[in-house]
Amino acid sequence: MKYNFNFSNMPDFVLIKTGEFAVVEDFYKLLKDLLASPKWVKGAPQIIDHQSLDLRKMTFEDVKMIQSIVEFHSAKLGGGKCAFVIQSKNKSLAAELTNPSEKNSSALIKFFSDLSTAKKWVLT
Asked: Which of 1, 34, 47, 112 is the most exposed place for a label (fewest CB within 10 A)?
């Protein structure tokens, strides 16, 4: 499991880049480590850059589990937006995850296939 936190854009957002990552299992640890960081600011948006991962094997149940992990930590996260950036070859997954008919319980979580669009969203 690899991930690193880039706090250089705080308080606008924290950029989290992942690699060699078991999505569901490691995401829980990632959030725990983020919240434990002395540089973390409650309510700051997060951009989680998963572009180095191949998510084609990710199931809808995995997505629901990640959403529940974010919701479990929501009080400590402070209501900031959370943008997931995934590879463009996973665009169909991103479209499915952001489909209005399948909206998750939090409008603060969205999936993108490019970093610049994710940044624009968290900054608005």
From this structure: 1
Is the pLDDT at 38 greater than 70? The verdict is yes
DSSP element (H, E) containing 14: strand 14-19
54 within 8 A of 87, measured Cβ to Cβ:
yes
Q: How far apart are CA 87 and CA 45, in angstroms?
A: 20
What percent of the chain is helix, strand and coil (3-state, nearest 5)? 45, 20, 35
pLDDT digits (tens, 9 = 90+) for 96-116: 555 443 444 456 888 888 899
Contacts of 40 (CB under 8 A, 6+ apart): 7, 14, 34
| Contacts (Cβ under 8 Å, ≥6 apart) of 59 | none
The Cβ-side half-sphere exposure at 103, using a 13 Å CA radius, reads 6
3-state secondary structure 43-82: CCCEEEEECCCCCCCCCHHHHHHHHHHHHHCHHHHCCCCE
CA-only gyration radius of the chain, Å: 13
